[in-house]
Backbone:
């Protein structure tokens, strides 16, 4: 049912919101991502992105334009966060999508009625403050990008880069929920304890010298499961209530000194950035694809991770891009530079496999949990989705068109992730922006 | 100020609640730990343990027996959890302690007034359901027990058991907040993927075969800090608003197969148990002690982890005990058996050092965060505070008086932690119980 194509995916639909119909728009009427915004210091409100505008969901409800399950969904977000809406599961989310599509449609009675009230229903996104869409309850970060795991592992163990459990276990660690922030903020360069790898000198405390990005997809959980009751693989996809972009900022020098034996801690928990718009599983339905084919010789997933439907359609064809804008580039009026592109197809494990694994021992997921995919690198150099990989551990700097070079992130650097899904016969959709700018510690 | 001794610590004080005055009582009038309870399915209410009874704080407030900052503290817990109360910091917490002590005192006007209303102010603890005292927002587990780190490390690397960062970095990892539960529940044996260490066979999925306990102290955070603003070591102790016992249940077979390279995940997140009563820093003041002496040759803590007052009084002299009751023992009417005893003195890092380190890169703590100390083993065999250590990695079973033996926990086993502080010239205090019973998966 999650992969179902219906009238909301019709590529011929047009919105009366003109900016939604522009070629290459991230938020055409076929996308309708959910988010939370605020107007001039007012209360947080749930909204749907449409072109350059935001549909104000409480306003649409107050105007009597939403009914039934869609009205229920909007009421669930009355506290200015999407946790309870996402907890309602697919039914109300789909009802809201269908009714919002009708309201924003250039054709039909519902669209005409809404258009007549456009001034009270729509806000220019540029005039709104976009907020964290959920109260992030728990944050887990997977390691499902096999090219990343191999490239990062090769820097430490060239002969045996993948850990022996990699093709059996969807490896993950618990991250820090309190420091997840929405796109657009400043990232303060962390101070930390670090010692260059392989040196015997005593460690010192000071500003991170190897600040990095990691290109990931974020998944927001829906209803969740009771403690002690695993989610079977066949039902696991229904737990994912939305997708966003996620930058797992990493202080490599701090991380590599601290992480043996219990994993990354301060090297990661100073900040995580996610994009503000929650792309629904419904909007993604046309862009599902087979799970990443397992190379010959790889073991089949164990039974608790194997589902034929998931193997056939549980992957995602999402093009991902990383843009760098330095202080010098901005002063010169130069546009941000594309430094990495990749695709979510390169994930070794599907979202459903991550959910099934996460709950397989009984761990309970709750609405508003955030799950990161892990860094999504691809097999080529341009698809290496962190500076750690792209610069071969800091030995081969990236050259920028203006003559600057980057080994690690410098103060003033702004990193922006974008993502786009395209498929013949369907309207393309985008994820908006996930950005952060480094400031001195 | 945190270490201040005042009239609330006077060992000669007696309560009109007779059970509080019994020798060896966990909750004499000098303790006054905070908790949340429920009567017969009613709403959660904040309370203070006194002997075998609970002082009903909303009832005391409604009776006009609390005023000023103490009243504020009780109002902050009106939602049935202590997060907002702990967030108020030391002032209101101390005001509540002083006024509650006066109300429960066998001498004085306040005590007589309260005693006259005892039937509406007190509930028998045995008739109350004790709840999780806070909504656990984020959970971090340290590794500050050096004897544990050495004993656990020796099982894998006999020649070099401590990781090279151990004496520099207060090592920690993020745990799972959603699966923290209060004492008294059932712990479902997790299923998981595991492969015996050193074997080449494919892993299999099934019930955990190496289920273990870990004896830890839990710390609940108070006001917290904004993202990007580290808490200096000199102010770090003020962030700890309370202490409890914590059992970091561990599925060793799952953990050891999954944990390289990103740390423990499913091996830990199926359940964590904490005791219901939050022992305040004020109650602990008489039992502070010097930080664990660093053996000759160990490096001094780096400046961000060093504070003279903390080195002098930041340690804790808390005796800890682990009791095992098997199904067979209960059928035979036998009492639980003491299998481990230890002391919080054996922690290599103080709570203040853990807080300072946790925030040193800018990570924000929030009220209701839970921080575990790590397993508190001591230098002798009886002080090895997990079965992993006590049985030398499962090779040397523990013999019980009834002839049973335990390598790992079996279904029906009930593990209970207790803790007690004693010092000449002061009334001893206890932590209550932190228990859980294993049930089949």
Residues:
């Amino acid at each position: 049912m999650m992969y179902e194509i219906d009238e909301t995916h019709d590529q011929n639909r047009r919105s009366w919101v003109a900016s939604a119909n522009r070629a290459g728009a991230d938020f055409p009427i076929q996308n309708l991502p959910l988010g939370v915004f605020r107007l001039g210091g007012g209360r947080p409100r749930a909204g749907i992105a449409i072109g350059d505008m935001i549909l104000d969901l409480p306003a649409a409800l107050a105007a009597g334009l939403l009914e039934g399950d869609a009205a229920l969904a909007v009421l669930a977000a009355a506290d200015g966060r999407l946790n309870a809406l996402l907890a309602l599961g697919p039914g109300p989310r789909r009802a809201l999508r269908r009714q919002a599509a009708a309201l924003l449609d250039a054709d039909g009675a519902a669209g005409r009625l809404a258009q007549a009230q456009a001034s009270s229903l729509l806000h220019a996104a540029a005039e709104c403050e976009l907020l964290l869409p959920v109260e992030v309850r728990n944050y887990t970060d997977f390691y499902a990008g096999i090219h990343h795991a191999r490239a990062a592992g090769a820097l430490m163990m060239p002969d045996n880069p993948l850990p022996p459990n990699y093709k059996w276990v969807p490896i993950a660690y618990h991250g820090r929920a309190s420091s997840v922030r929405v796109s657009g903020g400043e990232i303060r360069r962390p101070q930390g304890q670090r010692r260059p790898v392989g040196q015997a000198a005593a460690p010192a405390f000071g500003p991170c010298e190897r600040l990095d990005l990691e290109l990931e997809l974020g998944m927001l959980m829906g209803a969740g499961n009771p403690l002690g009751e695993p989610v079977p693989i066949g039902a696991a996809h229904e737990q994912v209530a939305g997708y966003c972009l996620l930058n797992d900022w990493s202080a490599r020098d701090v991380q590599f000194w601290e992480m043996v034996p219990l994993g990354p801690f301060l090297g990661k928990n100073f900040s995580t950035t996610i994009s503000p718009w929650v792309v629904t599983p419904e909007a993604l339905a046309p862009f599902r694809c087979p799970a990443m084919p397992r190379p010959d010789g790889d073991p089949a997933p164990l039974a608790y991770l194997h589902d034929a439907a998931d193997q056939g359609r549980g992957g995602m064809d999402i093009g991902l891009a990383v843009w760098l804008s330095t202080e010098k580039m901005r002063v010169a009026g130069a546009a941000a530079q594309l430094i990495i592109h990749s695709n979510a197809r390169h994930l070794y494990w599907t979202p459903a496999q991550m959910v099934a694994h996460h709950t397989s021992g009984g761990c309970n997921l709750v609405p508003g949990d955030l799950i990161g995919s892990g860094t999504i690198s691809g097999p080529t150099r341009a698809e290496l989705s962190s500076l750690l990989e792209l610069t071969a551990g800091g030995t081969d700097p990236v050259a920028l068109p203006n003559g600057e070079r980057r080994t690690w992130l410098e103060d003033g650097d702004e990193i922006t992730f974008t993502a786009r899904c395209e498929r013949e016969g369907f309207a393309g959709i985008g994820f908006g922006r996930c950005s952060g700018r480094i400031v001195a510690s």
Q: What stands out?
A: Chain A has 14 helices and 26 strands. The CA atoms of residues 220 and 370 of chain A lie 5 Å apart. Chain A has a mean pLDDT of 96. Residues 90-104 of chain A form the longest helix (15 residues).
